[in-house]
Amino acid sequence: MSFKVQDYYFKKAKKENFLARSIYKLEEIDLKYGIIKKGENVLDLGYHPGSWMQYTSKKVGEEGSVVGIDIRPLNKKLLPIKNIRIFEMDIFDVDDLSMLGVDKPFDTVVSDMAPNTTGVRSVDQARSLNLIEQVFYHLPVFLKDGGNFVIKVFDGHEAQVFLKSQKHRFKEFHFLKPKSTRSVSKEFFAIGKGFIKDEE
Q: Cys-Cys with 46: which of 62, 90, 100, 113 at CB 3.0–4.6 Å?
């Protein structure tokens, strides 16, 4: 099946030498909410194939850095980019930031992760929500106080309920379905600004 929006953004990504059309989702989110700034350190959870890494590495510039984690093999096309590091590991095995070569939480955490889909909506929504819950659980390890956060969500009632329960953890909390998202897609993005770390 062909989607006009997919054709347009797919061709645009190819023309502009990005690894995937998902670059334009992050670009729209960043332009609207100012998530990523020059000189920041950014963590990309489930970075593969790497278009978000390409975008963030340019945005943070030489003074910043981007770390990407994915369970899939390293995408060697990213290796020439000087201000990034990529790791082949399960993000939920990271319990200490020294495992990623850093000594303090990141300014921004982004996640375009999705589970292996089955085509059964209820199953895919449940798998997506499980990923999201785990990411939120690990946020205090990854994200600094006052930091920003973007995560992909497969829409569903349980996901909406969970996200509403997490709003208090940020000074601002927004939802957005970027223009480059296919019309038939049930995905959207949750955007948190100003992370409020739980008091110990």
A: 113
Burial 2-22 (b: 16+ CB within 10 A, else e): eeeebeebeeebeeeebbbbb
Which residue among the candidates 12, 32, 58, 152 is catalytic per the annotation?
Answer: 152
Catalytic annotation present for 152: yes
Burial of residue 34 (CB within 10 Å: 0-12, 13-18, 19+) is: exposed
Contact 25, 180 (CB under 8 A): yes
3-state helix, strand, coil in the chain (%, to 5): 40, 25, 35
Domains of the chain, CATH where assigned: 4-195 (3.40.50.150)
Tens place of pLDDT for every residue, the chain, 200 residues?
344 555 776 787 777 777 777 888 999 999 999 999 999 999 999 999 999 999 999 999 999 999 999 999 999 999 999 999 999 999 999 989 999 999 999 999 999 998 887 888 888 888 989 999 999 999 999 999 999 999 999 988 999 999 999 999 999 999 999 888 877 778 899 999 999 987 54
Whole-model pTM? Answer: 0.91
- Identify residue 82 by its one-letter amino acid code: K
Which H or E element spans position 85? strand 84-88
Contact 16, 54 (CB under 8 A): no
Phi then psi dihedrals of residue 64, to 5 deg? -100, 180
CA 49 to CA 164: how far, in whole Å?
30
